[in-house]
Amino acid sequence: MPDSTHLSDAPHPFPPHVGERLARGLGQLGLNAELKAPLLAYVSLLSRWNKAYNLTAVRDPRDMVNVHLLDSLAALPHVRGPRILDVGTGPGLPGIPLALARPEWQFVLLDSGIKKTRFLRQVAMELGLENVEVVHARVENYRMEQGFDTVISRAFSATGTFTRVAGHLCGPSGQLLAMKGRDADNDPEGLPAGWSVVATHSLRVPGLSAVRHLVEITKDS
């Protein structure tokens, strides 16, 4: 994790209650309070770049805390490392919050948008995220010799489509995790042959009333 003492001294354009909301949510998720400083530094960068690059429709930092940061971190108990691929990461969600929470794991953040990957490289540099690699590519064209333990997406596409375009990136015992909203979108009929939904997890995100879902998909044995 980046030096939280240094980051806590960095200026953030947020009133105190934004940090308080984040600290409260981290506590509810059972996560270390030291994550607060680097996560706020990330939101600060996202807010600043968003004005020019339109990286997210969420503009208020208070909403970013719940809708982006805590929503991403709620999936953490179901993520298996040490090699994780975030497909269609956009402005780094869920990849950046997860990488901050698990500095011992290696994360690849994949997106086809040049502005988004440019932003993510800046984030990785400024936050000192040595466990993050940013790749500008379409997922169906991306290849790795070694598969990933977890391939995760957040509102990337329908679960069946996600499985078809990203399944080749899973390792032999890897898993796909599709983060979904109120609609779990876990219809097994939509999956390509050889894949199955093994679990649909309900996620409670601090500060959000709606239940989120995480669909876990693996290759048939």
UniProtKB/TrEMBL annotation:
Q: Which GO terms describe its cellular component?
A: cytosol
Q: Which family does it belong to?
A: Belongs to the methyltransferase superfamily. RNA methyltransferase RsmG family.
Coiled-coil blocks: none
Annotated localization = Cytoplasm
Biological source species: Ectothiorhodospira marina
InterPro entries per UniProt = rRNA_ssu_MeTfrase_G, SAM-dependent_MTases_sf
Q: Which UniProt keywords apply?
A: Cytoplasm, Methyltransferase, rRNA processing, S-adenosyl-L-methionine, Transferase
Q: Which reaction(s) does its UniProt entry say it catalyses?
A: guanosine(527) in 16S rRNA + S-adenosyl-L-methionine = N(7)-methylguanosine(527) in 16S rRNA + S-adenosyl-L-homocysteine
Q: Where do the annotations place S-adenosyl-L-methionine binding?
A: G88, L93, V139, E140, R154
Q: What's its EC?
A: 2.1.1.170
Biological role stated in the UniProt entry: Specifically methylates the N7 position of guanine in position 527 of 16S rRNA.
Would you tell me the protein name for this molecule?
Answer: Ribosomal RNA small subunit methyltransferase G
Q: Does the keyword Cytoplasm apply?
A: yes
Presence of the UniProt keyword S-adenosyl-L-methionine in the record: yes
Chief place of localization: cytoplasm
**UniProt-listed Pfam families:** GidB (PF02527)
The molecular function terms of the Gene Ontology recorded here are: rRNA (guanine-N7-)-methyltransferase activity
